[in-house]
């Protein structure tokens, strides 16, 4: 339980460091009979790949995934699916500038405090490359969800102070700019803002938003494995995320109960629906049939070219300038990671929910 | 794994419904040799008890805890500690008004969707009384932490728009008002705001803030069981919490990297410390030795006396007026629950961290 | 994960000591909609109760179970079911004879080595009374299995050298003698053997056998959570069990492959069945549709009245005579514990198996 | 929790099929600072490799392990260690003879019943090659144990009726014969017996015995995660194992309490020791400081060249002759797997035991 395992029913274990041999993940608990090929996974990995634009690092990485096990004749077999992406950019580098100094905003100091040891090659296990395992496993979860009519879509909601406007919101637009913002005008403004920040050797934060549609009511396990609780954990476990909110989130702290409660009514087909969705699709930790909507705040890239104050492993104060190109913003590349983590969480709870009722257990084993 | 278990090393399982026989919790994994008596636990339960002021429900509840196992001669034995609080207020009530109608903002509808079943007696398992198990187990976790010099303190940060002022912040003040606000003036304003809301048959939300001091650097397990990720899950699992942020939280989304990075320096005794604490005491998911600071947004009490629109189990639209007295705000009673959940999370990760280094394993088993 | 939790999908946590306030268990993961009352559980507890015959201790215990939560209107609600049996026989005793000396064959020494602490009151947590929690939770598991047409039956297979004869095997007979032996003649011989052992202040061991019928093929999770592996763990976790075998068990070590392989054929209705059942109903860790048959070896009662050599906590050698009445054999009272542990294991794996196929997941969520 | 994960503190997940791309394992929870190289692992894999003698299959396999992550500068980093052995012998074969027919004694039928799917290439996930992951991870566990002075040694105890004689027992001898029998004469007899069985197109079973020395008293978690219970699960999870016994095992069922109880005394240095070891080093599920001794019964190789009766996937009866060379006995190659599984179990419980006492927690975090 040392932290690289997630999920109980659809369980993943990831491994790999930034500059080791590769990044991998094994998925234990994928049902048999799901059609799966490498392209299903590759298309998600391609969305987190660096080098796509001037706002992402130019490091040339193939990031080609290979399915090592668990698929036979184009379908999952029910046994573990191992996925691997080799690190193609392991060339020997000069780490002498950062080898002994703790980079501010990074995990260098805390890994050392924990393990008495430091893998100084590009952050080791705390590198953003670790998310490859999440996205690869998440792609399988997404495929399962899609086959049940459940869709997960994340996008960049804001970059610094620049927000997607509700009036101009156009989901298709997110595929047309490299910031994955569903608002062409906001994207243009954000790009300018990012260029300015880069010119000042600085970086910026932002917000990712995610919407889950088609999720049936009843998913989430009271009292600790609530859907929102597990989503929060999954999302906060992504490197640079510093906050999570569901539905109106922090807004509810300033709301009145009469505003915040979502009344119930019947829709045209006589089904129970909520009149509003302040709750973000979750009541008492269980999905209510509305869209699940959450947001994550993502801090500015900690690797900046400006001079920073720090100390060395040998306990001496030392100024630090981080060389090399780094993304001025993390959010756009994190969007697909947010989707992956949401999918892993939802599949795990969907599976957990199958034993909620005796009637459902009989539905499986009486037809056995 | 059906949701009522939390933690891996210091593991709890809770049970009980609002109007059943009682609420309980069993703690598996408490080390032997911790002095423990019922008063250690009762003092925390007393802080969440209703009936303390005009802003909390008048229901007369004893909420006396009983230790059923795991303590012998005043010390823990290393075996499970079961704790129980009997429900003394189980008198037969008239639930006819809400028996068949889903209360907006409550889990009535979602429990029914999940289990095909509804315990309409005061919310059943989704009632706020469920937190008794959390607080009771959390009291043991807090005692463990205190013996290691680690302290956890939560308080009400805001009520609606009324915030604790950084200038007037006085922790001692929180014990002098029933809202647990560490700012006398803000507390007075908030009390007036609450009275107005009650007069309008409405309720209000707010924010709880929590500070953990004395936590050594190195706690938290990359990559999924990060300290902030597990805190987020623990806090979001509390009934009405809709958002969580660590350190500058959503503020980091608008910050620049040069502002947000906390530089390192040496303190007077030559130890590595951060110059600022935008990170809230956690880097890469691992504690960095600074104070851990997080906030939770808590929605307004969903039970309000105003007329609300809803539907029945029989799929008919119906207006609803919730009778009886209900707290106009959840935050003050949630403060101690936030502390408990933080403590449970931290103890679990402290225990997990004991096997981080071969040297520590030898420290136990070579002296065995 | 400190050892008092079992199961992942149908999870139990037990607590309580021999001479504390009581013994309890909470069940997390029982589906909603199972009819359940205290009598369903009490009838199993009555089978393990002492004081039933001259071969079981005369301690007068009520062992009445109380359902504390999780049942409403006669059915399970899907939330945790807590069960408690109060210890009615907590009267102050004179433990001075054993307080400081380690009883041979008991866990006195090892608990002290582990926890640096000893609960000398009748064995504390290592007492046989701990099995009350197992049997109570197992009764719920058995009720679930029965509703799916799966039955579990254990009995005493041998007492010392006296074995149940295959020719005289009569399951009904087990209910007619206090040794739960399905062979009247063997039971009579065994009773005589036990009386002789008691006269010599000695105790005897034996074997319990268990048969599971009606289990569909396909239950068990390769590679570590095999049905036989999980059964072995569950059975070996019972206090005095020293060995476990499935099907021909140790006999297979002396068999030839041509004898040991069970051929397949079609039965009268064209279904695949095995021609023999050397495998004991499990192939590759997965149920094959035949009866699952296993045996457990149970050591002689360690509490005997003869003089034994031992040492004290203060590291002095000391002879020991254990006073009071003790069962001369453990097997008959363990029979119902074996059934309970088997049921808990099978339910957990039945639930795990529900996500084996995409088709089954669709069967639940497409009809949602 | 779909079965390919083992352990809670030192956790492994394995993957891979007999004729897929390879077999792998990831280890989550290995402490930082353990010296580790591929040769540490390879030497154990070499012991399970086929092709070593006329009694093991001639399939030419390199089985070279590669460390993919978690090791830097020759030491473990505390992050997951992924290990992979590529399948070099994936050439296209003619499976038409067994593709549609269920081999007796194999998991063909049960996998199909479970997953609705069959990987007919050499058994897929149910192949003996799956144990490569166990042995590779076990090698790391063994290295941890050795650094704490704990040693695990298994050997072949019997082949059919031929047993190692206690008088001739010589541990060094096991390295001199391919059956890993610590008795030269028994090994010669067993080799003759195996040749006869092969000539008759048959196979034989046997028993492996394992001894753990140097284990401190106090390891094992009551009540469900007892050391013997977890060992039983780990050992029964190995493919062909049908029985497990600890200490005198099934012998205790025929013993008297006065014989079976191990008295305590003081050794020359005044330490508590047992006078005998009928218990096999475990009392109440916790190690008692004596050697831990257990045995596993391993069935005859199910793949035999004789004609066998079976049925097809299409539900037709069909006779089957299995072609190709197969080991006539599984035991010798299982010996190292038994050691690996024992080591994984012991390390996991050693780590679990570190939080048994408040004093030990202070020992880590007060020196932090």
Q: Largest interface, per-chain counts?
A: A-B, 118 and 118 residues
Structure class of chain A:
alpha+beta
Rg estimate of chain A, integer Å: 22 Å
Principal-axis shape of chain A equals globular
Termini Cα gap of chain A: 34 Å
Count of DSSP strands of chain A: 18
Main sheet attributes: strand count, strand direction, barrel closure of chain A:
5 strands, antiparallel
- Beta strand % of chain A: 15-25%
Residue runs with pLDDT of under 50 for 5 or more positions of chain A: none
H-E order of chain A: EEEHEEEEHHEEHEHEHEEEEEEEHH
Oligomer: homotetramer
Q: What value does the average pLDDT of chain A take?
A: 93
Strands ordered across the widest β-sheet of chain A: 1-2-3-7-4
Helix content of chain A: 25-40%
Molecular structure report:
The structure is a homotetramer of 368-residue chains. By secondary structure, chain A is of the alpha+beta class. The first copy, chain A, is 26% helix and 22% strand. The first copy, chain A, contains eight helices and 18 strands. Chain A has helices at 38-48, 108-115, 131-147, 184-199, 227-236, 257-260, 331-353, 358-365; strands at 5-6, 11-16, 22-28, 65-67, 71-72, 75-76, 81-86, 151-159, 162-163, 206-213, 241-246, 264-266, 272-274, 282-283, 286-287, 292-298, 307-311, 317-321. In chain A, the strands form six sheets. In chain A, strands 1-2-3-7-4 form a five-stranded antiparallel sheet, with helices on one face. In chain A, helix 1 crosses helix 7 (331-353), helix 3 packs across helix 7 (331-353) and helix 5 (227-236) packs antiparallel against helix 7 (331-353). The model of chain A has no long low-confidence stretch (mean pLDDT 93). At the C-D interface, strand 1, helix 2, helix 5, strand 11 and helix 6 of C face strand 1, helix 2, helix 5, strand 11 and helix 6 of D. Strand 11 of chain C pairs antiparallel with strand 11 (241-246) of chain D, so a sheet runs across the interface.
């Amino acid at each position: 339980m040392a932290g690289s395992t997630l999920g109980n029913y659809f369980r993943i274990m990831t491994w790999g460091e930034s500059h080791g041999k590769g990044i991998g993940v094994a998925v234990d608990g994928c049902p048999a009979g799901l059609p799966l090929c490498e392209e299903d996974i590759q298309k998600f990995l391609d969305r987190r790949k660096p080098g796509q634009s001037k706002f992402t690092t130019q490091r040339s990485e193939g990031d080609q995934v290979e399915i090592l096990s668990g698929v036979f004749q184009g379908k999952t077999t029910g046994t573990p699916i191992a996925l691997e992406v080799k690190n193609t950019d392991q060339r020997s580098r000069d780490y002498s500038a950062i080898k002994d100094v703790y980079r501010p905003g990074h995990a260098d100091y805390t890994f050392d405090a924990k393990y008495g040891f430091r893998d100084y090659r590009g952050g080791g296990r705390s590198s953003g490359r670790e998310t490859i395992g999440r996205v690869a496993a998440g792609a399988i979860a997404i495929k399962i969800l899609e086959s049940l009519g459940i869709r997960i879509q994340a996008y960049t909601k804001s970059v610094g102070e620049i927000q997607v406007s509700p009036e101009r919101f156009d989901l298709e637009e997110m595929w047309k700019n490299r910031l994955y913002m569903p608002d062409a005008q906001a994207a243009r403004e954000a790009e300018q803002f990012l260029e300015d920040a880069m010119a000042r050797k600085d970086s910026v934060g932002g917000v990712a938003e995610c919407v889950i549609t088609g999720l049936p009511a009843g998913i989430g396990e009271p009292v600790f494995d609530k859907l929102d609780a597990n989503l929060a954990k999954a999302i906060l476990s992504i490197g640079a995320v510093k906050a999570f909110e569901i539905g109106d989130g922090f807004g509810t702290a300033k709301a009145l109960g009469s505003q915040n409660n979502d009344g119930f009514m019947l829709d045209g087909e006589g089904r129970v629906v909520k009149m509003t969705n302040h709750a973000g699709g979750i009541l008492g930790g269980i999905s209510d049939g509305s869209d699940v909507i959450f947001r994550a705040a993502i801090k500015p890239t900690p690797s900046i070219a400006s001079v920073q104050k720090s100390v060395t492993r040998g306990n001496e104060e030392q100024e630090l300038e981080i060389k090399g190109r780094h993304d001025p913003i993390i959010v756009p590349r994190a969007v697909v990671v947010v989707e992956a983590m949401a999918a892993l969480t939802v599949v795990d709870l969907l599976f957990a929910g199958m034993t909620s009722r005796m009637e459902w257990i009989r539905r499986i084993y009486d037809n056995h």
